[in-house]
């Protein structure tokens, strides 16, 4: 049986409301024993925490940058109180998105900085959203001395990848690498040190090639892992073991029970 960790899965999303139990069962039947669920806003945190209560999912708490218009300054003390009370495995999903049009870059940066300060104060890793903002995110990580976390859906240059790894980050790979045209992602996923890589789905988003424009789900992770193992010339079980070891190290997750 594979031992896989989906380090980024929005299991609390409404897309799973109709069949969430079955989604989790399919994932676990395929060897995906741990699903890390990040929050996206203060309003969604109760649903995120419900995933931990119902399925034992590790959770991350934070405010997603693309919803910057819904985040208020008054939400930050509430987030701090929730982090203190609930002890998530990370602060996330946080970061910067300079790809989606119409977002306020300055406001995103203010919110990101405030949440990095929380991660530093609580000694927690971060789950990072990075789109068209690799250098700016890295600048803020250095500013606050953040040395542990995951760069979700990483798609920067090899030099930027090296800089994130030097900063203590693991790099997340998922459905994007299943597309033959995703040359940069495939080069990164095959050439980077194995101890820098973790696996993820971002379900229900970033569906793999075989489910293009359909709902993504964590049960697809074994096939994604199998493709990455093939690209790297590895045995799938060995790749699963290595990436799960990386995930456990960066997020302080327990070992799988026999």
Automatic annotation (TrEMBL):
Recorded GO molecular functions are:
hydrolase activity
Q: Name one Pfam family in it.
A: TatD_DNase
Keywords, sorted A to Z? Hydrolase
UniProt cross-references to InterPro entries, sorted A to Z: DNase_TatD-rel_CS, Metal_Hydrolase, TatD-like
Q: Which SUPFAM superfamilies match?
A: Metallo-dependent hydrolases
What CDD domains does its record include? Answer: TatD_DNAse
PROSITE patterns documented for this protein: TATD_1 (PS01137), TATD_3 (PS01091)
Q: What does the sequence similarity comment in the record state about its family?
A: Belongs to the metallo-dependent hydrolases superfamily. TatD-type hydrolase family.
This one is known as: TatD family hydrolase
Species of origin reads Chitinimonas viridis
């Amino acid at each position: 049986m594979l031992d896989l960790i989906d380090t980024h899965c929005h299991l609390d999303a409404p897309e799973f409301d109709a069949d969430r139990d079955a989604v989790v069962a399919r994932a676990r039947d395929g060897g995906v024993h741990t699903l890390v669920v990040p929050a996206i806003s203060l309003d969604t945190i109760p649903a995120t925490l419900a995933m931990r209560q119902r399925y034992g999912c590790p959770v991350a708490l934070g405010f997603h940058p693309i919803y910057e218009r819904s985040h208020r300054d008054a939400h930050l003390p509430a987030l701090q109180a929730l982090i203190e009370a609930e002890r998530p495995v990370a602060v996330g999903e946080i970061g910067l998105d300079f790809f989606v049009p119409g977002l306020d870059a300055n406001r995103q940066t203010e919110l990101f900085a405030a949440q990095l300060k929380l991660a530093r104060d609580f000694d927690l890793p971060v789950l990072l959203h990075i789109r068209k903002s690799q250098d700016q995110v890295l600048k803020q990580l250095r500013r606050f001395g953040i040395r542990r976390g995951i760069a979700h859906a990483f798609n920067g240059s090899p030099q930027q990848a090296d800089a994130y790894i030097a900063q203590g980050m693991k790099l997340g790979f998922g459905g994007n690498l299943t597309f033959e045209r995703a040359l940069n992602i495939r080069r990164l996923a095959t050439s980077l040190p194995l101890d820098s890589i973790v696996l993820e789905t971002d379900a229900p988003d970033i569906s793999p090639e075989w489910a293009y424009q359909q709902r993504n789900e964590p049960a697809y992770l074994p096939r994604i892992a199998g493709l990455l193992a093939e690209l790297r010339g590895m045995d799938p079980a060995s790749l699963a073991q290595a990436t799960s070891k990386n995930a456990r190290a960066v997020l302080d997750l327990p070992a799988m029970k026999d």
